[in-house]
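Page 42, continued from yesterday. The earlier attempt failed because a stray header line got pasted into the input along with the sequence. Redoing it now with the clean sequence only.
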Amino acid sequence: QVQLVESGGGLVQPGGSLRLSCAASGSFATMLEMGWYRRPPGKERELVAIMPTEESAIYADDVADRFIISGDITKNAVSLQMNNLKPEDTAVYFCEAQYRRTRWDGASVSWGQGTQVTVSS
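This time it went through. C-alpha cells are written below.
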C-alpha cells in the first residue's frame, strides 16, 4: 500500500498563487502515475493534472494555462503550482498515485487525505 502525504493549500485572494506538494511512501514495485484531483463544494471529484510515468502531463481544460504539475516520479514526489487562482478553483485537492504492488500485479490506486484550497477576497 502506498501512503500519500500532501502539503500546501490554504486561503488566497483571486489572482494569487499556491503550491501543493505530495510525497509517496510505502512498499511497491513500480509507480505508474502521480497527479492531482479536486472536489469543488457540492460537486464530484474531478481531474486537475496528472503525470504518467512515460507520457506527457495531462491537464483539465480550465487549468491548463494556469497550473503546472512537476515532480520526479522516480522519487515518488509531485507538486502542483497554481497561478492566477480563481474563486471556482476553490476545492479540496487530492494527491493520487497509481502503482504496481509487484511486477505481476495490475494497477492499484491510493489517495491523499486532501488539502483545502480556498480562493476568496
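Notes: The mean pLDDT is 94.
Reminder to self: strip header lines before submitting.
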